[in-house]
């Protein structure tokens, strides 16, 4: 257990005094997943309190060597009690899981900013004052957060901010203590962390400056096409303040984003800066109830936002200064209990032009995150798209349309990060249309673009993401992940961990593949090509080989191919676990066995 019973005082009242902790909660729909945890919306039965229930599988924690990290997170988080911090209400366990009960919030600031595109200075003041309060509280207890970003700042239904995610937090012994570990998110890393120097509480203040910039401008100050470029910009403190910001806002950002930590503003100086002291022009900053897209709960290491996307008022989506559209109150039907796979029982009041909202299915039920790990650069031009996998693994799809002259031009660009989690969309400048078509180098990022995470991707872009996933999946189905030599021939398991082929020493080739590459669960088929290359047979993978109307020697080869594939899948599972535990090592492609020495055949090359 991360926190012992002696350290943790569980919730207790007259109604649940003699009740096991786990029986005091009802679990509803799934609102987030991660490598070893799932987060559900829940309710505490004794007082009907709405909560988030984070469930972590002990076996997964052990496999991923994450016990110490979870222990450190809970040790820090469970003792924090402040209105600007997401509260960890209770921790308990059973034989298989650890349960964290947390405050349930309405959304996170990144998701809200994705809708609004940028906040007004009044709105930014409202949020930053509360964030400063939370950071002051953490630093007063010698706690360094180290991962302050909009994803980790949650909004309540009253539109107040709570700091979440203490997975990278560090408990220091004294205020003068420093740390050496390079952790955090590149866009918000302080220069001292990016350059692997000692760092302390000033690193959180730097992140606060980057947050202020992002709130007012709509994107992080050092955001670039790849991590290395971003870190270089951070190290050199290279950013641009756009026109339109007030003198006070520019001054605050410039005085926080100082490379020299001694010149960086302190929290007290920030609180007393003219930008934050300026009177709010909108006295009703908490009264408007016009927009909300999802639930979000503190997740520890991953995004837990529900992927449902509601129709929103055009004024919310418009760029530029607007009055704050606060979050509506949650209305929960407390008499309705549903399974985690059921639809949400949440409803929202006072949404403009919406009489009824039906929650759409989780994005995970429609799409699968792509992954270009270990893939080489690819450049493909089709009738309607230019598709690339770049050197850094980014996937770029440039959509082509035919114009009156008969030539083609690019009308929009859809870009997905190598892990499939970050998506950028924009329409390029007309003057640059033709320059993209023949280019295989890195594409420039325009000033105006839309940025989403996999969880927050609007439904209108799902087809584009699906095309990108299919493009990557086709490449992965052709790239070898495991090679295994046997006395009978050569086996290859592809990067998809599904597609497989076996080349017999007599030249016969047997392939296992999906009937439809667009779906991971598509039925498998077996294709057999004889040694002459002229005769091809196709069978259903699940058919009994003994019942097939083929010669005995063919049945024996099919049996062996299926057996060898299962062997490769077992090796793949073990190697995947090894790579998770030792990510610095190069595990794939892996080769097992020795190629048979044949004098008259080269079929196993």
UniProtKB/TrEMBL annotation:
Source taxon at top rank: Eukaryota
Domain Cryptic POLO box 2 (CPB2): 479-602
PANTHER family in alphabetical order: SERINE/THREONINE-PROTEIN KINASE PLK (PTHR24345), SERINE_THREONINE-PROTEIN KINASE PLK4 (PTHR24345:SF91)
Cellular location(s): Cytoplasm
Residues that coordinate or bind ATP: 54
Domain called Protein kinase: residue spans: 25-276
Pfam families linked: Pkinase (PF00069), Plk4_PB1 (PF18190), Plk4_PB2 (PF18409)
Residue span(s) of domain Cryptic POLO box 1 (CPB1): 362-478
Molecular-function annotations in GO: ATP binding; protein serine/threonine kinase activity
Protein name: Serine/threonine-protein kinase PLK4
Principal location class: cytoplasm
Keywords, comma-separated and alphabetical: ATP-binding, Cytoplasm, Kinase, Nucleotide-binding, Serine/threonine-protein kinase, Transferase
Signal peptide as annotated in the record: none
PROSITE patterns associated with the record: CPB1, CPB2, PROTEIN_KINASE_ATP, PROTEIN_KINASE_DOM, PROTEIN_KINASE_ST
Keyword Cytoplasm attributed: yes
Gene Ontology CC terms: cytoplasm; nucleus
